[in-house]
Amino acid sequence: MKIIMLGAPGAGKGTQAKKIAAKYGIPHISTGDIFRANIKNGTELGKKAKTFMDQGLLVPDELTCDLVVDRIQQPDAANGYVLDGFPRTIPQAECLTAALAKLGSKMDYAINVDVPDENIVTRMGGRRACLKCGATYHIVYAAPKAEGICDTCGEALVLREDDKPETVQKRLNVYHDQTQPLIDYYTKEGILKSVDGTKALEEVFQDIVAILGE
Ligand code: AMP
Description:
Layout: E1 2-6, H1 13-24, E2 28-30, H2 31-40, H3 44-53, H4 61-71, E3 81-84, H5 90-102, E4 109-114, H6 117-125, E5 127-129, E6 136-138, H7 165-179, H8 181-188, E7 192-196, H9 201-212
Parallel strand pairs: 1-3, 1-4, 2-3, 4-7
Antiparallel strand pairs: 5-6
Helix pairs in contact: 1-9, 2-3, 4-5, 6-7
């Protein structure tokens, strides 16, 4: 099963993507996580990506697309995957469709986790991330067991640079300009499904499972 997660930054698509990956036994492929890992390891790609990410801007399509096309051909992705944070622009979606067509394949579902803008800014201010293992939390909706400490690896949690309020508004503008058109794109492809992302995390997941099947 090949799934794309769509939705504004902070809509909860990453959390849902991880749950989908665990339930269906497919890899969770997050371009944001891949970029952050590259930044942490000081790679050339990481250096290039960081300048865009810190400003709330998108990393250029060429850098992003090649990375994903390579990743989805790894052996662990043979039975499907869930893409989180990719595609984020029409050229990225076209690149993905073309790459899959070459492989004789196509996406099965694009799931749009729908949350209005007014909820987003509040949500993102409460996000906390572990920069060591990539786990994400929310101080209200998904709090760690011990305040400020990662449940998985014990590292101190931080508010990511790009989750700070001044950057969030910019990311939302970028989302509306460049990513929202994908909703039309995948509606035309006939694979778009929307879920109400304002519901509780588990309810949203059950709505997704109802779409994907048990
Ligand atoms: P995320 O963790 O998905 O919210 O991504 C964090 C940041 O990484 C974004 O604000 C972008 O700067 C960058 N990024 C992640 N995925 C993409 C993508 N598909 N295209 C361009 N930039 C991306």
